[in-house]
Amino acid sequence: MTSAQVNALNSTDLQFLVTTQVASLSTTVISHLLTLQLQSFTETQIGQLTTTQVKVLTADELGALSTTELQGLTTTQASALTSTQIGSLDTTTLNNLTTTQVGALNSTQVGGLSTTQIDGLSTDNLAALNVSRLSTTQVSALTTTALNALTTTQAGALTTTQVGRLSTTQLNALSTDNIDALSVAKLTTTQVSGLTTTSLNNLTTTQVGALATTQVAGLTTTSLNALSTANLDALSVAKLTTTQVSGLDTTAITNLTTTQVGALSATQVAALQVTQANALTTTEVAAFTSTQAAALTSTQIAGLTTTNFSALSETTGIPSLSVAAIHSITTTEIGSLSSTQGNAFVTSQVEAMSIDQLNALVVIL
Predict the structure, then answer these.
(1) How far is the C-alpha of 205 from the C-alpha of 307, rounded, in Å?
(2) For the segment 162-186, what is each residue's pLDDT rounded down to a tens digit?
(3) Structural domain span for residue 16
(4) What percent of the chain has pLDDT over 90?
């Protein structure tokens, strides 16, 4: 049949075309069908269109299909639609597709969706979309509403490249569930440093503990000091720079666990300010390793309270103090020690003491 012959048929005539006749219509004929004529096709007839025929349907023709007819397209037929056809559909037509049809859209078809179309998808259809098929441009253009409409499974399925294109505005607008679903390993250092304290505290302790050294290095002292106790305790302090360590406020220092304090390197211990060193608990000071005790500076030793100075262990603390640190010990600090601790000073340390220090030491022995 020619285009002219088909166009001369009325609705009733068209519905009498058998499926084999529909499937035999040329693409030229299909492309020349009037919208009203296509609407006259039954669901069965629509289902008999070949993939070649489907490819020539215009946006108007697709939009003119009833919901039943549109949903009658098989996944094979739907996958035959070009990215241009998909990109030309209005949101109403897109949302008339079933979740199965949306989920079957291939990468090329998904790539044809505009930001407006994606943002206009119904909750069910957006949840059915295979987000790994979105381009980085599409991901970076998603509104915060669309991002939060993603399921946690979809948020977790975003690739490293896709996550890397999310702006800090998008990340900070994520719901707690969706930010918890992200693999933090996919975040760049810049993205981590751009997270608000609210977003950081919305991360799970597992996510915080999984932050890489470069990511932790991107955290500001403001962010670190604003971490919840649970998230601060989950942080691997060994990944902190000396600048970050020295920038922790006394509350944060107090909230560190004994395990975390024990994990501080010699360089990190030496970076502690006097107020920070005094914010450590006596249990944490007593647990100092010989390496940590040896790293204590003259300024730190001179500024320690007698409570914390006297907490130094007689096995790993006192005997490990450097000669420079010995010079800064006050007589009051020596007087706070027990006789056991006094006897823990080694020969080189005693030899480095002043007359006043020695006199104070004799008193406690």
Answers:
(1) 33
(2) 999 999 999 999 999 999 998 999 9
(3) 1-80
(4) 72
